[in-house]
Amino acid sequence: MAFRLFSRGNGVADAAPAPVVEKKASATGRIVAFASGSGRVAWSPRDTSSLTRGGFVGNPVGFRSVKLIAEAAAAVPLICEDAERRFDTHPVLDLLRRPNPGQGRAELFEALFGQLLLSGNGYLEAAGLTEAGMPEELHVLRSDRMSVVPGADGWPVAYEYAVGGRKHRFDMTGSPDPICHIKSFHPQDDHYGLSPMQAAAVALDVHSSASAWSKALLDNAARPSGAIIYKGLDGQGSLSPDQYDRLVGEMEMHHQGARNAGRPMLLEGGLDWKPMGFSPSDMEFHATKQAAAREIALAFGVPPMLLGIPGDATYANYAEAHRAFYRLTVLPLATRVSAAVAWWLSEHLGEVIELRPDPDKIPALAEERDQQWKRIGEASFLTDAEKRALLGLPPLDQDG
Predict the structure, then answer these.
(1) Which among 45, 61, 186, 377 would be 20 to 30 A from 89, CA to CA?
(2) Listed residue (82, 41, 121, 74) closest to 349, CA to CA
(3) Domain ranges of the chain
(4) What is the pTM of this model?
(5) Exposed/middle/buried for 133, CB within 10 Å: 0-12, 13-18, 19+?
């Protein structure tokens, strides 16, 4: 008799017909499936590609926020354990150490966290299976190419990965699942997550527009345009079409752009230059840009101090901001993703294992760790076993 812990059947490998097992499902599943269209692709309502280009590739605050979180979360050490012991060596740890020929653990998780931050969705593919049932390789798939195919009960029956005009379909009706889909909470979508990039979309537009406005000022000698006033000999105030075209051409060729900055202007008779100063609204553009940058950092959960954004005094010092960044942003994200990956790999392995971050090995939290160890170590009313449990350590081997 063969038994698989996570099999969707009854686990008995014989010729006898398997009894029909009632599958429990949410009472709202059929309604979700009806709204989505059973068997049809549920397209994401957002344009991930445009948000990625404008908010990550084209915006330094968005780029740095995503990179800071993804790199920090990918570098967090992971603990692998089951209900009884903690493992120093394990097939799951071996797989994560080198998930595929082109990536190590840090590169794989950085890509996964990056996709999750940019689109609200992260997809891991299990490529091949070993004799033990473990994936031979793990690959992060691009979120903008993946689509969910919901079934009659509202749960995905397949995922479609589209590149150009070609599609590959991952069947999710068997066991173990070939795809691990990790998504952020979205209150208005049943199949896709909400990314911080979407929440920061307005602030990203404001910040990018302010940068474009600054660039336009630099292209025009770093000051607002003035006015050329024409007064003819007979009092007329208009130029002929030829005179106007010539004047515009002279201005574009000899007086606009960075290479012509500071170049003196030679005006012919009847032309007078009247410079225009900054208006109060023009002077506020820099403050508006800084406010937009703080909103972007707020959406991602990055203290503005860590991004070099001035004018923010929320934290007393850089070390305090660094600790808050790990406690409020990095560790919750790493905990959620590692737990989802552990459950998915447990299905392949056939036994329950747990992956979780190890805060004791994070330098930014060293001060908090020392205070906690001292406080628990000095508690005389606790036994050694209780102290180890409070510190998240496995029990001592009684035979040792």
Answers:
(1) 377
(2) 82
(3) 29-60+87-197, 209-297
(4) 0.74
(5) middle
